[in-house]
Specification:
Its EC number is 2.5.1.87. Helix 4 packs across helix 6 and helix 7 crosses helix 8. Among the domains are: 115 residues, no CATH class; 37 residues, no CATH class. About 8% of the residues have low confidence. Strand 1, helix 4 and strand 2 form a beta-alpha-beta unit. It has 8 helices and 5 strands. With 231 residues, it is mainly alpha-helical. The strands form 2 sheets. It has a 3-stranded parallel β-sheet with strand order 1-2-5. Strands 3-4 form a two-stranded antiparallel ribbon. The termini are far apart.
Amino acid sequence: MTGPHELAWRLLHALLCLHRALSARLRARFGAWTWAWRRCCRAAAAVVLAPLGFVRREPPAPGRPRRHPVRARAGSAGLARLRWRSDGRALRKLPVHVGLMLTEDERSLPDVASLVVWAMAVGISYISVYDHQGIFKRNNSRLMDEILKQQQELLGPDCSKYSSEFANSNDKDDQVFNCHLAVKVLSPEDGKADIVRAAQDFCRLVARQQQRPEDLDVDMLDSLMTLCLPT
């Protein structure tokens, strides 16, 4: 078996040497044609891919500085603002309050912050973020910092046009940011104390004979819960 294997390797080596020699000769003789063929291929690719939205980026000329990354981010932020405004105009009915329920195992602060900033841009007034595991509530300050960071980067000069509040449902003091959106971070523990207070209020009304026990229904409980919510 050594003889056939050795013969095969020698044959492959000879073919490789022949290929290299032929390629070098063709490049030396038809170098100009090769350059023209490459230009034609690039032009054809541009014609085919342009209708699909693909744009070929030419490399910078020798000695020409590359695009600054900060300016590149600023340009992408401007495009994001334009896209978000068009999203707001495309909505037939703009919701006043949007609820976000996180169900994935991996919680991403930048993703939630990006959604909050998008809500600012389109003009939504309130957004509630519910996390069943309570991770966001325990890291509320990090979420606030991420929202403020993306707000400044993506909204840019438009950020100064808004002034509203960003508040956690458990915080006694509302923290004011330059935005037009009130954000509530919720967990499974939220709402239990409000239900207790609503029940206590209704019992006091019954004791004062201002209400009867049979008056308690969904609408009554809803009104009592609304009175218990922090302003």
